[in-house]
Write a structure and sequence with these properties.
Layout (H helix, E strand, L loop, with lengths): L12 H19 L5 H5 L8 H14 L22 H11 L1 H7 L18
Helix pairs in contact: 1-3, 4-5
Bound molecules: zinc ion (ZN) (2 copies).
One zinc ion binds next to helix 1 and helix 5.
């Protein structure tokens, strides 16, 4: 589970939907009283921003025409546990995922030209 906290518009479908589900999983984990210490230590969660983050991801899902039927309702203010580094995550996500890289860093994706290969639009 991980809160990337990068601009939702810069995320591919898989990572957008993945972080959305993981927001719900973080809330469930917290409610069950399970430890978030490992996530906190690794900068993967920022609990007090979970609701706002979920809602931003859900808004982007709806904007793209995906379905969203799972409001996140913590019921109370979540404690300030954990801190995420969005700039580092932006680099990490771009490193891991070609589609996120294309969205997050369009300037870094000038088409490669090879002799004899057709350039394709994506
Ligand atoms: Zn949801
Ligand atoms: Zn991705």
């Amino acid at each position: 589970m991980r809160m990337w906290m990068v601009d939702p518009r810069g995320m591919c479908r898989r990572h957008l939907l993945g972080e959305h589900v993981e927001c719900h999983m973080f809330l469930a984990t917290f409610r069950l009283g399970r430890s978030l210490a490992g996530y906190v230590r690794n900068g993967l969660v920022e609990l007090d921003r979970l609701k706002a983050r979920h809602d931003a991801l859900a808004a982007e899902m709806l904007r793209r025409g995906y379905r969203h039927r799972s409001p996140l309702a913590p019921g109370r203010r979540l404690p300030a546990i954990g801190q995420v580094d969005p700039a580092a995550n932006r680099r990490e996500l771009a490193r891991r995922c070609a589609e996120c890289r294309r969205r997050l860093h369009p300037e870094a994706n000038q088409p490669l030209r090879h002799k004899g290969t057709k350039r394709t639009r994506s």
